[in-house]
Amino acid sequence: MTRFVLRRLAVSSLILLVGSLLMFVLTINSGDPLEDLRESTASNRDQLMQSRITNMGLDQPWYVRYFTWLSGAAGCLIGKCDLGTDRAGSDVTALLAQAAGSTLRLVTIATFAAIIVGVIIGIITAIRQYSGFDYVVTFISFLFFSLPVFWAAVLLKEFGAIRFNDWIADPQISLLQAIVTGLVLAVILSSIMGGDWKRRLLTGAITGVFVVAALMYFTAVGWWRNPALGVGLVALVSLGFAVGLVALITGLGNRRVLYSTLTTVGVGIVVYFAVAPLLDEPNWLLLAGLFVSSLVIGLLIGRLWGGYSKGTAMALSAVTATFMAAMTFLDHLVYAWAGFLQLKPRPISTIGSQTPNFPGDFWETTLDWGTQLLLPTALLTLVSVASYQRYTRASMLETLNQDYVRTARSKGLGERTVIVKHAFRNALIPITTIVAFNFAGLISGAVITETVFGWKGMGELFKSGLNNVDPAPVMAFFLVTAIAAIVMNMIADIAYAFLDPRIRR
Predict the structure, then answer these.
(1) Which has the higher per-residue pLDDT, 192 or 313?
(2) Backbone angles phi and psi of 91, in degrees to 5
(3) For residue 301, how many other CB atoms are within 10 A of its CB?
(4) Confidence category of residue 505, pLDDT binned at 50, 70, 90
């Protein structure tokens, strides 16, 4: 494996070098970097032109400029990056750090959300092949896959920001709107759950009644502007998650694993009250420490309860602890929503990644950061989730038709065991490849999204460099996207070896 990784790194480095040379040559020959000054009527035009020529090194041969950039970029290997300056004299390394932070934050969240949603829906549609749910999801997937990003972004800004901001000023949901919403969700959930028509009808009826009642109750008590979850709802949702997780992975018959996750929920409720004073005004370092502590607690509980299923119990308890930590974090965010609306009556902005000079506390500032991130993340997720859903469905269908799956079923194994332990792991191999390519592709594809939503990220850096025929920002963009592609493909290759031991040899 070590030899394989080193060989791939060597080949990837060569590809990166050739690609950087090609990108540099194409950029410097894409236009005239002095065009705007040549048309200027300023009295100091000649001085400005000479200053830009010196600043950008235009008086040097192209290969000298390239090797100057390459030597500075090579310094990143020892922690001394020097990516040069743009035509205005700004340090590109500093610009890249700020831009990469915004874009990677956006792309990483969108990638994880798309993977989770796409893989889950792909598995369900494979199991429910040729059902009504399968046909509807297939249609929606093709719709999202072919969706023009700029058009979808404009729609999201109109309905997800402008109209939502108008509605939240006086949030009202009529009985008709609640009934329509309940019917839609009832049809979706009953289709996912499957079963005979009686089971579908019961599932749909319970879902519809619950949704209508909840929407009308929330509207009556003004929950939309003054929301709260509370320890009761956090505990109830966490309990349902723990039971569902055990039922999906091992089955409820494995009592030690079930007791392990339930104990984790119980300890999590105690911790909820214990850490409440610390979360009044926390910081990210404190939250990171609490998150790691929750993982350790989950692992310890799983080890104590696990018995012969120690590994599974530790894993599921850690996942349950992570979910409870996320629910506790969400509880504090929801509680801060009322104060956030006082500071920002129109909560979702259509431009920018954060509100300048926002005066809120930690939770209100986090809400501002999250609401700014919501629309572009939703857009990139919608575009990506279609690919994951289609590939997961196709891979699962191919795996479910393999001989070893039929053998597992003939032995009398339950359908859950066949799908989770036999089919899904092997179906992950082609999906891993898609994740690697999609992550790097999203960074470059975020150029349009960032332009529409006014984000100062990698897209803005690339676009400004290309418009100004300035190679330094363009090469910085290339460096990040190319390294991301190499790293993600390397991770995919290593993941293959864990998913299929035959690949190790």
Answers:
(1) 313
(2) -70, 120
(3) 26
(4) low
